[in-house]
Amino acid sequence: MEKVTLNAVQREHRGKGACKHLRKEGMIPAVVYKGGKEGMVIQVDSKELWHALHTEAGGNAIIEMKITSGDKTSKKTVIVQEKQRDPVTDVFLHVDFHEINLKEKLKVKVPIHTKGDAVGVKEDKGILSQTIWEIEVECLPTEIPEHVDVKVDELHIGDSIHVKDLTIPGDIVVLDDAEKVIVSVIPPKAEEVEEEEGELEEGEVEPEVIKKGKQDEEEGEEAPEAPSGE
Predict the structure, then answer these.
(1) Residue 186 in contact with residue 159, Cβ under 8 Å?
(2) Is CATH 3.40.190.10 the right assignment for the domain spanning 3-100?
(3) Could you count the other beta carbons within 10 Å of the beta carbon of residue 22?
(4) Could you report the per-residue pLDDT of 78-118, keeping only the tens digit for each?
(5) Domain spans in the chain, listed from the N-terminal domain onward
(6) Residues 106-149: pLDDT tens digits?
(7) What are residue 46's phi and psi, to 5 degrees?
């Protein structure tokens, strides 16, 4: 697992107003937790944070954080626990870090990448359907995989790959249900059903159907003339 460095400064002010001011200055408000408890409120440079979270390790990168507080400096080893982004601009709004011990196992979610082209898609025009995009694992921080590859080349229509089929290196324990389907090849979507028999084509006029009741028939018929007596 790749390690990255990140500088941080301990914050003195909290609240929405203070956080909004930080973002205008190019800083991102953040918190470092330890053992589920809040440890320290900090701020990090938005550009440094972006680079720290866009290495090959992705969101599970081990971060060596250098925190400045007045004239003192401390170091913590952390990973990202949660990050908030603006739904429109996608910029970071807030980040939660979790302080870790490199010798203690932790639970993290790892992304799943599909590799190859399924034969059922190439030859039979099936559709590759991925239902799980990440799995939860438990392992030492240094053993966190950047991602888990799933090879789909040999999948025909109707075939699936489950969590239990994954090849996970080392002593990593997968916590997801072993029977969960990760990816499968499903049949192509049936073409839309043609118009029902009897449905009018465009521009065609439906013939008028006239129904007469007994009374209408009697009223619409002229009475026969009486025979002449002559």
Answers:
(1) no
(2) no
(3) 19
(4) 999 888 888 888 888 999 999 999 999 999 999 999 999 99
(5) 3-100, 107-186
(6) 999 999 999 999 999 999 999 999 999 999 999 999 899 888 99
(7) -60, -40
